[in-house]
Design a protein that fits this description.
Elements (H helix, E strand, L loop, with lengths): L4 E3 L5 E3 L5 H26 L2 H8 L3 H6 L3 H9 L3 H27 L5 H29 L4 H30 L2 H6 L2 H9 L2 H8 L13 H5 L2 H30 L4 H29 L2 H21 L6 H10 L2 H10 L5 H19 L1 H13 L3 H21 L8 E3 L1
Antiparallel strand pairs: 1-2, 1-3
Helix pairs in contact: 1-6, 1-7, 1-9, 4-6, 4-17, 5-6, 5-9, 5-10, 5-17, 6-16, 6-17, 7-13, 7-16, 12-13, 12-16, 12-17, 12-18, 12-19, 13-14, 13-15, 14-15, 14-19, 18-19
Length: about 400
């Protein structure tokens, strides 16, 4: 009897012979370690920006540049992921990315401004490669549990972000400088890289399918309706998320809330994304309600933004909770990307297209919000425009829900 295979909708087959339990555990550990790393390198720096400026003595230009580096690098470096994956395989690509991430974080430990900037760029390059490769990695290794593993991945991202923002200041105090406090997070990145050594060996032995089959054209996907819809959805959800996360505390402080309370509201939003992610992925996995989950997230986001406009200050926690639920659309978008291709390479190409364009445009969210506030002297116009972004997200989410790949069917 031949090995079990999975037949896709176009008749192609891929080997789905059950992997050894130990290898599945290793794959799970690898997903968790990547998730913990992908936001820790960002939020650990955010918590120390003020201390870093005082410690290194750089001016307002560098201070303004640092928060803009991640999304700009994500857009630029993410474009190379498909090319790297064809040569190293998905596991090898992610291992390389984590090594680059760890090296960049370690470089930031040097007490100079150039090391902070160069290390940040390098670290964000590593994160960019992981951002694009992980949907394909999850699809390859957890074909029948993609929803669950996407949830594990995104939840660990939230945990890593929260832990890094909470622990960076104590780590910096213990290390004696904010630069060394940043460098401490390189240990987590290198630990993640070690988990991918077996996947790199598989790629060298020709066991990975990432480089097999016809190549997928990113430009071809961009000319297709499917590519435009998925890219558009990733773009608008990123624009909304980065705009809110960048300016929510400032909006609340402008309305009269203390800085400490405004920070708590942002923390409440981040924490809410964890149960919200569990709920929407349960809707998809158990009830097959991807479209309903997309609609629920967009409606929640709309309620959250409207609340920032209309709710009294003592009820603004309702907006924070609603926005946290709305941000759970991110794993749904990753799930659509994971299901968008018949092969791992096609999925990687779609992920490259959506994330590169998406992060580039998403940079306009925080910038545009700040510019409109400076021009109008209030947050009303920026928030009303964000409601327009939410409506567009709703429309694109409904359209993108049709692109979920059917479950793989086993044949003999």
């Amino acid at each position: 009897m031949s090995n079990p295979q999975a037949q896709t909708s176009n008749g192609s087959t891929t080997n789905t012979k059950p992997l050894p339990k130990g290898f599945m555990v290793l794959s799970l550990l690898a997903v968790v370690l990547v998730g913990l790393n992908l936001r820790a390198g960002i939020t650990s720096a955010s918590a120390l920006y003020h201390d870093l400026q005082q410690f290194l003595g750089y001016g307002p230009l560098v201070a303004s540049l640092l928060p803009s580096i991640p999304t700009l690098v994500f857009a630029a470096a993410g474009m190379s992921t498909a090319w790297v994956a064809r040569r190293l395989g998905l596991g090898g690509t992610i291992m390389l990315a984590l090594c680059v991430l760890g090296s960049g974080l370690a470089l930031r430990g040097l007490p100079t401004t150039w090391a902070l900037l160069a290390g940040t760029v390098a670290a964000m390059c590593g994160i960019a490669l992981c951002n694009v490769a992980m949907p394909s990695f999850i699809r390859e290794n957890f074909a029948e549990k993609t929803s669950m593993m996407t949830g594990v991945y995104t939840i660990t991202m939230s945990i890593g972000a929260t832990a890094a923002s909470s622990l960076s200041v104590p780590l910096a105090a213990a290390a004696g400088s904010p630069a060394l406090g940043l460098a401490a997070w390189s240990v987590l990145a290198f630990a993640g890289a070690l988990a991918f050594v077996p996947f790199l060996l598989m790629a060298r032995n020709g066991s990975e399918a990432a480089a097999s089959g016809p190549r997928s054209s990113i430009l071809g996907l961009l000319r297709s309706k499917r590519g435009l819809v998925i890219t558009g959805l990733f773009t608008v959800q990123g624009t909304l998320a980065y705009a809110i996360m960048s300016w929510l505390p400032t909006i609340l402080i402008f309305r009269g809330m203390s800085a400490a309370q405004a920070g708590i509201m942002l923390g409440l939003l981040q924490i809410m994304t964890i149960p919200a992610t569990m709920l929407v992925l349960w809707m998809v996995n158990k009830l097959n309600k991807l479209r309903s989950a997309m609609i629920a997230c967009s409606v929640a986001a709309g309620i959250g933004v409207t609340g920032l406009l209309l709710l009294p200050l003592d009820l603004v926690w309702i907006s924070a909770i609603a926005l946290g639920f709305g941000f759970a659309i991110f794993p749904l978008v990753l799930l659509v990307i994971s299901h968008s291709g018949e092969t791992a390479e096609e999925t990687t190409a779609m992920s490259t297209l959506a994330q590169s364009i998406g992060y580039l445009v998403a940079t306009s969210g925080p910038f545009g919000m700040g510019l409109l506030f400076a021009l109008t002297g209030a947050w009303t116009v920026p928030l009303v425009l964000l409601l327009g972004v939410v409506v567009l997200q709703l429309v694109l989410g409904i359209a993108a829900s049709a692109y979920r790949r059917p479950a793989l069917r086993r044949v003999q």
